[in-house]
Amino acid sequence: MVILDGTIVNVALPSIQRDLGFSSSSLAWVVNAYLVPFGGLLLLSGRLGDLIGRKRVFITGLSVFTAASLLCGVSQDPAMLLASRFFQGIGGAVASAVTLGMVVTLFPQPGERAKAIGVYSFVQSAGGSMGLLAGGALTQAISWHWIFFVNVPIGIVAALSAGRVLAFEHGVGLGKGTDVVGALLVTSALMLGVYSIVETANYGWTSAHTLSFGAAALALLLAFVARQTKAAHPLLPLRVFRSRDVSGAMGIQALMVAGMFSFPFLCVLYLQKVLGYDEIHTGLGIFPVSVAIGALSLSLSPKLIARFGPRAVLLPGLSLVMAGLAALGHAPADGNYAVDVLPALLPLGFGFGLAMPSLATLAMSAATPQDSGIASGMFNTMQQVGSAFGLAVLSTLATSHTDALLGDGASTASALTGGYQLAFRIGAGLVAVALLLAATLLRSPATAQRPAAEEKPVAENAAR
After folding, report:
1. What is the pLDDT of residue 161?
2. CA nearest 87: which of 125, 124, 37, 24?
3. How many distinct helices (H) and strands (E) make up the chain?
4. How far, in Å, CA of 324 to CA of 352, rounded?
5. CB atoms within 10 A of CB 388
6. Looking at the predicted structure, is the pLDDT value of residue 366 above 70?
7. Staple 340 to which of 117, 331, 379, 395, CB 3.0 to 4.6 Å?
């Protein structure tokens, strides 16, 4: 539900603009007002889960998200909708930051953990794809208000179920990591960083606005790292990054999502503006990606990871993602869905279904029960920052190339297609860099699995 909300709004933006009177420049903040707090609070929320208990943090975040969704649905003016979207982003960050940490704590056995991470990866990807389909269907059939109202019954049932099903955790206590200064530094840095990225559409990458906010975000982030090396109880224990697999997985994930997570946005534009699809048919056109991800991540990926190790599964996964993006980079202006789009979407889905569970397994491989929340928050933060950066860069490059082609006399369809092709090819290049890092930086399966086997008794004792 939380991931779905990042995409479900996109299809409904024209209706929201007409109904509430948003200006063209302010309409983007219907999305950005959610993304900025979401990206900024993931790390802090994950650490809070370790300190006061992940169940408590999860239910709190889910409750805030659900209440904010109701306020979004009843909004009658831009100010109320933007404020509600901001609180929705806060609730989404708090709830989602601890989910992966709960998974690795609840399932200490490697085989069961691989299955659970596969389900987690599928839910993430399905939420993004379903948002496009559900947004178009709800907006066309009823009204845009229902893209938010639909969260309310789901959120209530989920919160009540979590209260009954999940075991209570006390956490390690606020005294073990109450670094208020560090919390302010990292939250401010991430919020400013996401803000500077999402606003490049209005100001450009080399503007004083982007450079000044980006520099401020970097300075705050460096100050946070320096603080963590000296703090008695650091918010982010830097020991988390001592593992080469963990650090490598975080960086590889950022590159992969930077290249791939812009594809739904760009592919939607290609299907609608070039091939002439409506909202519902566009959602149906993207849906095979979720089917392919589900086919791999729910069944095959856990078995392969348990048998061969996450690195061996990650490499072909990244190769398939790269191939799918490269194929989309050749989709023509007079393209046919069955010939030019679907054959590219299937390797994207299959590749992501292999790569994402592998990366999550590697990223959480060194997490202990005491810091699984912060590792989960960091993993989600890298995904959020990578996707925001990739979307901003690739959409800017696509627009610039389209404008240049139009200036050279190309038709609108040809110019748009040329811009999308360039973006897809650069996305494939980013995934190629991720593949190179995975092949050279990560350890062999046998080496990578040895620490997990050594830590197994510790995880089992913690579970007991």
Report:
1. 93
2. 37
3. 21, 0
4. 10
5. 26
6. no
7. 331
Q: Nearest-CA neighbor of 386 among 159, 190, 100?
A: 190
Spatial separation of the C-alpha atoms in residues 32 and 320, rounded to whole Å: 31
In a 3-state reduction of DSSP, which class is residue 25? Answer: helix
Give the type of residue at 79: A
- Which of these, 32, 13, 2, 27, lies nearest to 392 by C-alpha position? 32
In angstroms, what CA-CA distances link 248 with 103, 233, 311, 431, 437? 21, 25, 11, 14, 8
**Closest residue by Cα to residue 117 from 340, 237, 331, 296:** 296
Residue 268 has pLDDT above 60, yes or no: yes
Q: Other C-beta atoms within 10 Å of 344: how many? A: 21
Report pLDDT digits (tens) over 3-30.
777 667 776 777 788 888 877 556 767 8
d(CA 402, CA 396): 10
Residues 63, 33 contacting (CB under 8 angstroms): no
Quote helix, strand, coil % in the chain, to nearest 5: 85, 0, 15
Tell me the residue type at 326. Answer: A
> Which whole number is the average pLDDT over 110-133?
74
At CA 26, angle to CA 22 and CA 28, rounded to 5? 105
| Band (453; pLDDT cuts 50, 70, 90) | very low
Identify whether the C-beta of residue 317 lies closer than 8 Å to the C-beta of residue 353: yes
DSSP per-residue letters across 328-395: HTT--TT--IIIIIHHHHHHHHHHHHHHHHHHHHHHTTT--TTTHHHHHHHHHHHHHHHHHHHHHHHH
For residue 2, which phi and psi values (nearest 5 degrees)?
-70, -45
